[in-house]
Structures are given as C-alpha cells and as structure tokens.
Amino acid sequence: MAIRPILTAPDPRLKAVSTDVEVVDSAIRTLIEDMADSMYAADGIGLAAVQIGVAKRVLVIDLDQKEGKKNPGAYINPKIVWASDELAVFEEGCLSVPEIWDYVERPARIKCEYLDSDGKAQVLEADGMLATCLQHEIDHLNGVLFIDHLSRLKRSMAVKKLTKLKNPSEPA
Ligand code: K2U
Ligand code: ZN
Fold first, then answer.
1. Does residue 82 contact residue 124 with C-beta atoms inside 8 Å?
2. Which residue's C-alpha comes closest to atom 11 of ligand 1?
3. I need a labelling partner for 54 at 20 to 30 A (CA). Which of 7, 11, 32, 156 fits?
4. How far is it, in rounded angstroms, from Cα 25 to Cα 7?
C-alpha cells in the first residue's frame, strides 16, 4: 500500500515513451497496487504508470468505484489492435493536467490486447467511457496528454494555465 505523488504538467517526464514490461513479476504487481492506491487517493478513474514517474507500459482503470468495492483493472503492455471509424466525443480531464477539462474526439469502439496482472494474454472490446479512458491512458504511455489533441490555441492556453499553477510567483 503506497500512495505515490502524481506528476503534473508541464513536466518532461510525462513526455516519455514508456517501455514494455518484460516479465510480469511481484515488482509489477506491487507497482499496480501503488498505482491503484494513488488513483483512488486522487479520485481518479484511471492512471498510467508514467504519471507516478515509472515509464513502464502499465495502466489501471476503475470506472465503477463503489465504496469498499474497489476493483481496479490492470492493463500491461496494452495495444489497440482495432479502432472503429465511428468517433465519440467525451469531456476529458487528467490527474496530471489539473483544473483543465475539454472535449476530445476518439474512436468510439476499440479492441485492445494486453497482459493481465498474472501475465496472461487478454483481449478486450471496449466502447463508451472505457474505450475513451483506455485511449487516454495509452496516450500517456506514448508521452501524449489529452491537451495535445486540442487546437493550437486551446493547448497553448492550457500550458500557460498549468505553468502558472505550478509557478504562481513567477511573472505571467
Ligand atoms: O489519466 C488520468 O489522469 C486519469 C483520468 C481518466 C480519464 C480521462 C479521460 C476520460 C476519462 C477518464 C482521470 O481519472 S479523469 C477524472 C479526474 C480528472 C482530474 C481529477 C480527478 C478526476
Ligand atoms: Zn491523464
């Protein structure tokens, strides 16, 4: 059980391209536990390992948290092998991009291959919020934040706000 600090943008570590997990061992399972603890502590519904400074291709997601019924899904080396032409728009936020919310368009349905926390190969067909969240988290593994999908103007305004949040005493 360890709640670890979540990196916030701007931070070059969030731009890292995370590397594959070679062996799903107890160290990876401890990382998954720490990620879940950190996600729940921040009231998030998803978290990528890079957000706690570990550039390995690991995600946790828990869309339907009910008090006491925490059941995080762990996705190791996730890979989108199919995506629909149909698109869906959701308002997104991010634990690493505080106080910014905006609409992002992504494929509405995806097929994702991954390893579970036992190292077993799994295939998942997702739509709705799960599809959006998986794509958002896999973006993190490639060093991409949801604001990178916004217009140039909106992204620059977001970066300016995030920089001010991080360095309040610095002149605008
Ligand atoms: O990457 C993250 O920080 C996890 C996201 C998951 C998510 C992103 C986009 C669309 C759906 C889910 C956050 O949990 S979003 C919710 C949030 C954001 C900021 C603060 C608290 C909760
Ligand atoms: Zn995020």
1. no
2. 133
3. 156
4. 25
* Beta carbons of 9 and 145 less than 8 angstroms apart: yes
Number of Cβ within 10 Å of residue 153's Cβ equals 8
Q: From the CA of 138, how far away is ligand 1's center (Å)?
A: 13
Say whether 137 is catalytic: yes
Query: 32 with 127: CB under 8 angstroms?
Result: no
Rounded to 5 degrees, what angle do the CA atoms 137, 20, 83 make? 45
Q: What is the pTM of this model?
A: 0.95
- Residue ranges and CATH numbers for the domains of the chain are 12-166 (3.90.45.10)
Which tens digit of pLDDT belongs to each residue from 97-146? 999 999 999 999 999 999 999 999 999 999 999 999 999 999 999 999 99
Token representation of residue 87: 């698109």
